[in-house]
User: Fold this.
Amino acid sequence: EQAPSDLGRIAYEEWNGMRLREFQFAPEVCAMLQHLLEAQIILAIITNGPAEVQRPKLLACNASSIFGDNVVVSGEQPEPKPHRSIFDTTCAMLGVQPSEAVMVGDSLSYDIQGGINAGLAATFWVRSEDAASVSPSTGPQPTYTLNSILELEGLLLSGRAQNECISDQTEKAKGAQEVRTGE
Assistant:
């Protein structure tokens, strides 16, 4: 007969194993990420949570096959998203300036606000199926709102996002110049 403490441990291990077996990137997402890599777009993951929770999930979905070592876990950093420091760490790891990076995420308060805090070129909010009808009316405003992560490939590879970000940066600089000169 099993002791109650053993039953709890066994139930947890079974649940955790099932959860991790299901934690996979969809094949179409893997294909999209591979296309981005082939286009010389550098990819990274920033994930919030304790390392002992996040690292097994990253292993389960074989994230290293796509992202290599470009993985930042907040539990291994001084501060989580939306703090600027975790984005600065990631940009430094990738060898890019924040103005050369974008954030793609499903959380307005952590991903999008973090990208804004870090001064990234753009933020892409991927609505969850639960939030399909939600529009961010208050709080952080993403540069782009995607109904599916698969929309990202077209935006990035067409150059549309890059051109709009450059245009936006030019307008911001022009606006700053007008403020400084009183024009």
